[in-house]
């Protein structure tokens, strides 16, 4: 008997000792899932304790050292899960799992960043296993995999390859932030509130890894605004509002989020620039999801396949809404992009070759790059934005009095997103209180009044108040002269004569 026990130990010990942090994360996640599925309360709490022990043994100290807030979030989520499992609230336990699971990504990412500064390749690669396990790096991201393999072979490459890896990982977290909101909208469109809640939780806690980079690149104000947006999506899906109202609000939040992300990327934030970036992101998601969805002509993961359809459909919708403007940039490139999108659609519908889909996605991305290159530095008088805001607000008055609340809402949205966003920075330098007042009065109060069907008199009064504040802003803003920005050559037309369509034309 003793020899059998000894033999068992010899066989199993190396497995336990070789477990990576990625393996530990995977075990923690599996234990949390088992806690939700257990048939008895005792079994459920036992699985939860297993998950908690894994966190304490492998991740807690790291969390405390790099981001104490993450440890607080996870500790509170464990405590809350223990309470609600006792009452059988499985849905909330599942949402808490998203908090724990995805907050560990942030811990791992920050430990990787710290390892780079300390030139500790072993630590970097150890924490990288969490990313490898989660995102299947070796299968789905050959560029990142090659960089990490080089570090394994030559630790001195950490200083060069490490920052490249973390930048590419941030791109994944950026895509995930956009992806989860898109999926929440699609779920609400189907009446699936439970999934929508999960997607909004996932979106927020994916974003937390990206947040420090947003703050570093475009400032704390924008980063916190984006964080507030992501948190508000959870408030929306956890409310008792009708699902169609939830969908409308999440759609608007998604548009606001994408605008800030494009600013973070440093790309073109004109209407066409945002449209091209929107197509690009969704095609990248199509490629990622489809690789995990289909094999040998069969669906192997229905959820990933459904998500592929969502992202492809949205990419095509954005293209169709902006096709005429794209054609003005380059007719042949637009035709090529249209054909590639159609071919991808045919392949995905037929569960076709993943290699062919990847090739077509890459061709489409090349088309987008060409279209994006048809741009240049254009000087725009900042007062033109104020004139356009005033025009749109006055038109929204007319539309609302004529009973077209949707048109009025879109006009106000265009006034804010397509114009006011560009003057907030310069105006904020002169009068931060005024810039915030106008933003809240227009983006929140006025749009809510329209959505809530307030009387035309009240809407007129709100607009008139905003117009007075805009007049005051125009008096202090001229000292900033012109704004120089990169925009697509034909997009300047939209500043003078914007239509009432919504920002990006990406609404479902």
TrEMBL record:
Answer yes or no on keyword Transmembrane: yes
Q: Which UniProt keywords apply?
A: Membrane, Transmembrane, Transmembrane helix
Membrane as a keyword? yes
Give the stretches traversing the membrane: 480-500
Q: What NCBIfam families does this protein map onto?
A: PEFG-CTERM
Query: What name appears for this protein in its UniProt entry?
Result: PEFG-CTERM sorting domain-containing protein
Where does this protein come from, organism-wise? Candidatus Nitrosarchaeum limnium SFB1
């Amino acid at each position: 008997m003793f020899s059998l026990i000894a033999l068992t130990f010899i066989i199993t010990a190396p497995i336990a000792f070789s477990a990576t942090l990625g393996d530990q994360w995977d075990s923690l996640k599996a234990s949390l899932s088992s806690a939700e599925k257990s048939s008895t309360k005792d079994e459920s709490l036992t699985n939860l304790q297993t998950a908690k022990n894994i966190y304490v043994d492998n991740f807690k100290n790291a969390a405390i050292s790099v981001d104490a807030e993450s440890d607080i979030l996870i500790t509170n989520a464990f405590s809350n899960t223990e309470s609600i499992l006792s009452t059988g609230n499985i849905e909330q336990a599942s949402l808490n799992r998203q908090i724990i699971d995805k907050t560990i990504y942030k811990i791992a990412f920050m430990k990787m960043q710290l390892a780079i500064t300390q030139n500790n390749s072993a630590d970097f690669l150890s924490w990288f296993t969490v990313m490898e396990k989660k995102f299947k790096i070796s299968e789905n991201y050959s560029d990142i995999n090659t960089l990490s393999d080089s570090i394994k072979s030559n630790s001195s490459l950490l200083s060069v390859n490490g920052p490249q890896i973390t930048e590419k990982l941030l791109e994944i977290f950026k895509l995930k932030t956009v992806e989860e909101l898109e999926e929440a909208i699609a779920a609400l469109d189907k009446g699936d509130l439970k999934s929508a809640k999960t997607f909004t939780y996932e979106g927020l806690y994916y974003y937390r890894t990206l947040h420090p980079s947003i703050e570093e690149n475009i400032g704390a104000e924008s980063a916190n605004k984006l964080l507030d947006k992501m948190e508000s999506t959870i408030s929306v899906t956890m409310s008792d509002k009708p699902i169609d109202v939830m969908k409308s609000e999440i759609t608007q939040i998604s548009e606001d989020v994408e605008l800030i992300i494009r600013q973070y990327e440093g790309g073109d934030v004109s209407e066409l620039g945002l449209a091209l970036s929107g197509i690009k992101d969704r095609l990248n998601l199509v490629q990622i999801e489809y690789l995990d969805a289909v094999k040998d002509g069969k669906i192997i993961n229905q959820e990933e396949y459904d998500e592929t359809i969502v992202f492809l459909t949205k990419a095509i919708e954005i293209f169709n809404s902006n096709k005429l403007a794209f054609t003005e940039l380059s007719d042949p490139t637009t035709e090529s992009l249209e054909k590639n999108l159609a071919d991808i659609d045919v392949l995905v519908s037929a569960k076709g070759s993943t290699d062919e889909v990847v090739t077509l996605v890459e061709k489409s991305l090349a088309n987008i790059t060409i279209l994006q290159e048809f741009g240049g530095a254009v000087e725009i008088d900042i007062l033109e934005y104020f004139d356009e805001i005033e025009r749109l607000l006055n038109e929204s008055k007319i539309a609302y009095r004529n009973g077209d609340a949707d048109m009025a809402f879109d006009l106000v949205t265009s006034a804010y997103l397509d114009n006011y966003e560009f003057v907030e920075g310069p105006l904020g330098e002169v009068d931060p209180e005024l810039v915030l007042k106008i933003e809240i009065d227009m983006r929140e109060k006025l749009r809510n009044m329209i959505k809530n069907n307030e009387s035309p008199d009240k809407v007129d009064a709100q607009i008139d108040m905003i117009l007075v504040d805009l007049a005051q802003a125009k008096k202090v803003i001229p000292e900033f002269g012109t704004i120089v920005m990169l925009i697509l050559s034909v997009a300047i037309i939209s500043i003078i004569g914007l239509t009432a369509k919504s920002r990006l034309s990406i609404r479902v």
